Amino acid sequence: MAVSFLRHEVSDLCLGKPALRSLSISATVADAVEALRTSEDNFISVWDCNHHSKSLAGDQCRCVGKVCMVDVICYLSKDENLSSPSAALKAPVSEILTKIPGTVMHVEPSCSLLQAIDLILQGNQNLVVPIQTRQSSTLRRKQFPKSTNQMATTTNHNGQEFCWLTQEDVIRFLLSSIGVFSPMPALSIDSLGIINTIDILAINYHSPASSAVQLITQSLEQQTSVAVVDSDDVLIGEISPFTLACCDESVAAAIATLSCGELMSYIDCGGPPEHLIKIVTERLKERKLKRALENYSSVINASANSMSSSSSSSSSDEESSVSSSSSKLRSAGRFSRSNSYSARMVRRSEAIVCHPKSSLVAVMIQAIAHRVNYVWVIEDDYNLVGVVTFTGMLEVFREHLETMI
C-alpha cells in the first residue's frame, strides 16, 4: 500500500479540477477587480502570453502570478492611492502581484507527489499543471475562442488549458489515504513539534486597522492570518485574508479609518453594520479624502443595488444614501462583491482554534472544513500559543514519506 502511494503523480490530484480563469499581465488593477467580481474563485491567475504566435509551444504562455481582492484592498488602502483611487485602479496589474519569487510554478502532469510536496515546501504556493484531455487542440480552441478584448479572462492558452494545485489540495489528498501514515496522524500537534510559536502575526484589538496592512500582506504571502488579541495576548478574533477576499474594494476605506476590532465587525459575513459605514464616511470627510469618499459611496451603493435586485424584485425605488445601502446589504444577509457571491464559501471573523494536545488528523479535518491553511493554537484560557499551518503538516508527512522510501 505504501509503495503504491509513492507512485502517485500530480495528475492524480488534478482529476475534476476546473480550468484556470486567467488575466493578461497587460491588464489593469480595475480589470482584476472586475474579473474577481465575476469569478467564483478568490484568486485569478495572471499570465504572460503571446497569443499572436503561430506556435502552439507550451512555453509561449506562462503563469506569472495570482491576484485576489486582498491584493487590491491592501494596494488601495495606501495613502497615495486613497487620495486618487481612480488613478490607482488604472495601474497595471503587475503593481499588485506579489514580489516573492516562486509563488506559482509550472509542472508536468507526471511530476511525482513527492516532488510536488518538495516544491510547495520550497515556497511555491500554486503548482500550474496542464489539463490532460482527449480533445484535440482544435476542439479546445473552438470551445474557448480567443477574445478580441485582451483584458477579458480566458481559460485557453495557445490551445492548452491548465489547473493549479494548492497546499489544500495536497492535504486533502493525504487525508484521503491517512491510513498509510498510521500511527503518526493520531499524535498530538505538540508532540510532533509543528506548533509555530515564533512567526505569529498578531495585532492589538484597539490598534488602527491601517497599521495591520503590512501584516495582512504578510499573512497572504504566508497563507495564514492576522490574530487580533487583547493586552494579555488573549485571542479575540482575526483579520483573515480569506474573509477579506470575499469582500469588495470598498474595504480599503474601512482599513484606513477603523480600528482592528471595528474592521473585524465590518468584514463579518453579515455585511458591514450601518453605524460602521457611517463612521467610515465621516472619517473620510474629516480627512478631506473627497475622491476616496466618492469611490467608497459608489461601491457601497453598487453592492447594495446588486444585492437588492438579486434578493428582491418587489422594490422599484433606487435609494442612494449610505444608510439605505447598508440596510439592503444587511437584508441580503451577506457582504457581496457580485451576484456570484452565493457560490462562495463565507466565513466569519471568528478564529479557528485548537489545543496543543489536538491530534494532527483532527486539526487537518478542522482546517479543511473551514477552507483555511492554518489553525490557531490556544490554551484553555484562550491565550494564544501559536499556529499550525499546512506547511508544518506537510513537513512531517514528507519526513514520514522519506522513511517509506
Summarize this structure briefly.
By secondary structure, the chain is of the alpha/beta class.
Description:
The protein has 405 residues and is of the alpha/beta class. Helix content is 40%, strand content 14%. It has 18 helices and 12 strands. The chain has helices at 2-6, 10-13, 29-37, 69-76, 79-83, 85-89, 113-121, 137-143, 167-176, 213-222, 241-244, 251-257, 260-266, 274-286, 290-311, 322-332, 360-369, 390-404, and strands at 22-24, 43-49, 61-68, 104-106, 126-130, 162-165, 202-204, 226-229, 235-239, 353-354, 374-378, 384-389. The chain has a 3-stranded mixed sheet with strand order 1-2-3. Strand 11 and strand 12 (384-389) form a beta hairpin.
Please give the structural blueprint:
Blueprint: H1 2-6, H2 10-13, E1 22-24, H3 29-37, E2 43-49, E3 61-68, H4 69-76, H5 79-83, H6 85-89, E4 104-106, H7 113-121, E5 126-130, H8 137-143, E6 162-165, H9 167-176, E7 202-204, H10 213-222, E8 226-229, E9 235-239, H11 241-244, H12 251-257, H13 260-266, H14 274-286, H15 290-311, H16 322-332, E10 353-354, H17 360-369, E11 374-378, E12 384-389, H18 390-404
Parallel strand pairs: 1-2, 4-5, 7-8, 10-11
Antiparallel strand pairs: 2-3, 5-6, 8-9, 11-12
How are strands sequenced across the largest beta sheet? 1-2-3
User: Helix fraction?
Assistant: 25-40%
Give the strand content. Answer: 5-15%
* Helix and strand run: HHEHEEHHHEHEHEHEHEEHHHHHHEHEEH
**How much is the radius of gyration in Å?**
22 Å
